């Protein structure tokens, strides 16, 4: 059953809000009850799952989304079955890698073996779940998408609260409940997809070559992008340990409230921008630049207001053991504001179909950003890590904006008109 576009946008918006709000709902509960070291283990675990899932997922959800519109239902169902088998193998190899690299991973992440293996399992069910969600999107079933997200969020919050209150205020209450919640959503999604014929037959390897041909070339970009997102946290975990990571993440998660505004804006403005650029009219392009600068100013002002409010309310939102992190909040908000500005310029590269340049920018930012994060954290501790979060986001914004200005000429400079282009 299909859903009208307007209603679909609303449903997906609700699903995004549900998924994005879960960490914020749990933040004050956990920081009031977990010691910073335990909260740091939680943060390290979730970071490990996100990093691993990007590597082992092989973009099979993107492959399924594309092939949904190109293949007969029976062929698609067989491809999806093969994709799940490939995910099982990639995560089995990841588990073997954890055993081989255990000393390095423990020094970097501060996680015991059982948490690392639980992380591999969580990454597996996360990737399987994302595959089902992609099929729901392609088949225009936003309500199923929302129901899966609601199930995950409800179990994630409910189980975590129950375990902390009834069993023990330890990290595994959060990490275990997260893994169980994702697994429940994945099982429900598998049942729905099986009933609708979106996955059928015995998994094999008949479509693995096509799957790998799609997913493997994307790995460098995914690795660089993921590294940029997690550089500061990885350095804090490596240099300063789980307790400092717990303090750092309490401030970072407050700053991430800005993402709830930035992400929907990005999704809404991208189609509008493409439509305006397609008109190829100088007056329209000047209007786009003016509105872009107005958006930048609005995000900066909103970030300043939110930073002041978050610092003022920090004592009430976060437990007394985390007060050292209060001074980090303005840095975190500034970093997320810069991410919002990045979204305002990156779409020019997509419009010009210059995605290779985006990979070049993310790769450069990842390499240089690692050195920046390591140096500033070594010199200034947690404050240095927060500073690197701002510096690295500013660097990525600058690189992408410069490349976008060459790919699509726009009157960014009011005294000089559109800058030179190498051909859009």
Identify the overall geometry. Answer: globular
Using the CA coordinates, give the radius of gyration.
22 Å
Give the overall average pLDDT. Answer: 89
Beta-strand content estimate: under 5%
Number of strands: 0
Please work out how many helical segments DSSP would assign.
15
Q: What structural class should be given to the helix and strand makeup?
A: mainly alpha
Poorly predicted runs are 415-424
- Helix proportion of residues, in percent? over 70%
* SSE ordering: HHHHHHHHHHHHHHH
Biggest β-sheet strands, sense, barrel: none
**First CA to last CA: what distance?**
40 Å
Describe the structure.
This protein has helices spanning 5-33, 36-56, 60-68, 73-100, 102-109, 113-138, 142-166, 171-195, 208-215, 219-240, 242-255, 257-278, 282-317, 329-351, 355-407. The chain is mainly alpha-helical and 424 residues long. The two termini are 40 Å apart.
């Amino acid at each position: 059953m299909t859903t009208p576009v307007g209603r679909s946008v609303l449903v997906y918006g609700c699903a995004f809000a549900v998924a994005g709000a879960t960490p914020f709902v749990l933040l004050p509960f956990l920081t009031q009850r977990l010691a910073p070291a335990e909260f740091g283990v939680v943060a390290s675990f979730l970071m490990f799952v996100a990093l691993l899932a990007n590597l082992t997922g092989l973009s099979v959800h993107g492959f399924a989304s594309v092939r949904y519109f190109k293949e007969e239902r029976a062929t698609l169902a067989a491809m999806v079955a093969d994709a799940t088998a490939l995910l099982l193998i990639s995560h089995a190899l990841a588990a073997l890698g954890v055993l081989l690299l255990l000393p390095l991973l423990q020094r970097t992440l501060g996680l015991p073996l059982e948490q690392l293996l639980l992380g591999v399992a969580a990454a597996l069910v996360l990737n399987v779940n994302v595959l089902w969600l992609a099929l729901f999107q392609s088949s225009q079933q936003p309500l199923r998408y929302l129901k899966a997200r609601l199930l995950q969020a409800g179990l994630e919050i409910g189980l975590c609260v129950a375990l902390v209150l009834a069993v023990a205020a330890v990290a595994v209450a959060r990490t275990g409940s997260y893994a169980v919640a994702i697994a429940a959503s994945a099982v429900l999604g598998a049942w729905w997809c099986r009933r609708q014929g979106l996955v059928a037959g015995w998994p094999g390897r008949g479509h693995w070559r096509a799957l790998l041909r799609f997913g493997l070339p994307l790995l460098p970009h995914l690795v660089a992008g993921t590294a940029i997102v997690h550089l500061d946290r990885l350095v804090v975990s490596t240099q300063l340990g789980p307790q400092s990571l717990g303090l750092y993440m309490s401030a970072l998660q407050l700053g991430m409230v800005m993402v709830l505004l930035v992400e929907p804006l990005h999704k809404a403005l991208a189609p509008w921008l493409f439509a305006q650029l397609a008109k190829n009219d100088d007056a329209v392009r000047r209007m786009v630049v003016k509105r872009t600068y107005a958006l930048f100013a609005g995000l900066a002002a909103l970030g300043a207001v939110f930073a002041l409010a978050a610092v003022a309310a920090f004592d009430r939102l976060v437990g007394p053991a985390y007060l050292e992190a209060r001074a980090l909040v303005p840095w975190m908000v500034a970093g997320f504001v810069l991410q919002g500005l990045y979204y305002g310029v990156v779409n020019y590269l997509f419009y010009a179909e210059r995605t290779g340049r985006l990979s070049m920018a993310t790769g450069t930012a990842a390499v240089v950003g690692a050195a920046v994060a390591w140096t500033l954290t070594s010199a200034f501790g947690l404050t240095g890590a927060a500073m690197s979060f701002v510096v690295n986001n500013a660097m990525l914004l600058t690189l992408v904006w410069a490349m976008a200005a060459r790919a699509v000429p726009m009157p960014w400079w009011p005294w000089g008109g559109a800058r030179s282009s190498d051909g859009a």
